[in-house]
Amino acid sequence: xxxxxxxxxxxxxxxxxxxxxxxxxxxxxxxxxxxxxxxxxxxxxxxxxxxxxxxxxxxxxxxxxxxxxxxxxxxxxxxxxxxxxxxxxxxxxxxxxxxxxxxxxxxxxxxxxxxxxxxxxxxxxxxxxxxxxxxxxxxxxxxxxxxxxxxxxxxxxxxxxxxxxxxxxxxxxxxxxxxxxxxxxxxxxxxx
Length: 192
Prior knowledge:
Blueprint: H1 12-31, E1 36-39, E2 43-49, E3 59-64, E4 67-72, E5 79-82, E6 93-97, E7 101-107, H2 142-159, H3 165-180
Antiparallel strand pairs: 1-2, 2-7, 3-4, 4-5, 6-7
């Protein structure tokens, strides 16, 4: 059972107001960072502004499984620290765009999680409020589409207090077993 938070005790209107305030604070915190970032489920893109005219040889960029550092040679790094989650180093890249921004593409090791931040010591975002770009179920391969549809169905059922697809299968199996064995009494049986 999940624990009740002060957020759960708020009225619908108070929750909306809290969400607006939290989102404003999040935006301000993110604007204060020396970089911009965005993410999809499988990757994170970071853009770090550098002085106009910067060349690749002027940069020091370190991409490691759990660490990222970007800076100009001989100076304090613009950003440096432990990554929020691990990356696939061999699939992650960086490029210098228009001699004024370093674009870093990080492939997530776990492509099924949202990151709260890029570097662990930077402000976090509320990953529960992320609204991913609308992707069509038809864009997914059949296996993934089936998993997503099942998860959506199960989530909907839970919200309505109804059995999930797995629970429905168990109930159906029990019904079939009862039909085949009418001599057995299942009136006190609990399905779990």
